[in-house]
Amino acid sequence: xxxxxxxxxxxxxxxxxxxxxxxxxxxxxxxxxxxxxxxxxxxxxxxxxxxxxxxxxxxxxxxxxxxxxxxxxxxxxxxxxxxxxxxxxxxxxxxxxxxxxxxxxxxxxxxxxxxxxxxxxxxxxxxxxxxxxxxxxxxxxxxxxxxxxxxxxxxxxxxxxxxxxxxxxxxxxxxxxxxxxxxxxxxxxxxxxxxxxxxxxxxxxxxxxxxxxxxxxxxxxxxxxxxxxxxxxxxxxxxxxxxxxxxxxxxxxxxxxxxxxxxxxxxxxxxxxxxxxxxxxxxxxxxxxxxxxxxxxxxxxxxxxxx
Length: 307
Hints:
With about 300 residues, the protein is α/β, with parallel strands linked by helices. Helix content is about 45%, strand content about 20%. It has a single domain, classed as Alpha/Beta hydrolase fold, catalytic domain (Rossmann fold), CATH 3.40.50. The protein is built from 14 helices and 8 strands. The longest helix is centred in the C-terminal third of the chain and has 18 residues, at about 250-265.
């Protein structure tokens, strides 16, 4: 995917997003039949229009399949589990990629700014996971494979990583949603998130979500991590951090800060995987294309080691 590798831009902008997604979409289009051959069903996990999720079923399974949830990014203001044409296979490719490797894959939508603000999207993230756990029979009856809701993996990218970290670390969400789920979660994969607010590094979107600089500094994942009880932090499932080789300034900086803080709180080094050749936008949309998937194969191995 030379168009991605040759793009000189690294910060999120139309000059990065549009050429990147157009290049990936063109390759995915050549794989349409292969991607759409993977069974997909849509469910509502709430009453609002954006509280829906797609489930991608593994093509074959000798028993229950572990469940992978993917929470996309979009700067808190955008993102779709299924984009309109010509990008309609983006994330469908991801769903088929992980399903083919044995994971029943769930991609939820969640509410966006300005309709909502912190922490409501993180509530949606938790509600989507809870819905699948509580309605595994419905999910199984609609498709070809039964989900193993005792073996969950959660993957969040960019804003999705922030929402996932918030779900696990914000006191009310931690107690009401995350803590009951922890025994079921085998691993967390946090990719390219804005975990720490740093003025002057392109964090304007942070304020749109949190409301004020003060609120952002108080409720960012880094602050929530530092405030969480030590016993709770040590009880978290295994965590893998993921970063694009050509990620944004803010993702690289906050990723370093969060990795150091998390490692210090856990008392051990948290592993980080670098996605070679990728920019912030290309990492997940490329899955299903047959190109740039090496990092995700490593994630699959990491998850299977925890089954």
